[in-house]
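lol ok so funny story. i was supposed to be doing the assay writeup but got distracted and ended up predicting the structure for this chain instead. priorities right. anyway since i did it might as well share w the group, maybe its usefull for someone
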Amino acid sequence: MAERLSGSAGAVRPMQPGESVWQKLEQRLFVSAAPRGLLQWLRDVLSVRALGGALAGVLLCVALLRFQPGLIGMEPQSDALPQSYVGLLTDAAGKPTVLASSKRHGR
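and the output, tada:
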């Protein structure tokens, strides 16, 4: 591959970039690493991309809570008792002595 491109390298005359190019390059490389002020940080946080991501996250959470409340245990409350098992032990006279109960499937 280098052999194929070596011919085109000879056709272009070498040139030196101007001083302004070097200054802008240094500014981009080294000034951006300097500590940033509160205003710049706030500008970054409130950027359109960050707000779009936050809005998408909120909408996803609202949709999940609205359409799948059972995912995090937020099932609607009802007055009906849950399905369960009940056992009643009686004595020889038929009088109830022990009551044992359990919800279905251990819930």
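The beta strands are 84-90, 96-103. The two ends are 69 Å apart (CA to CA).
back to the writeup now i swear
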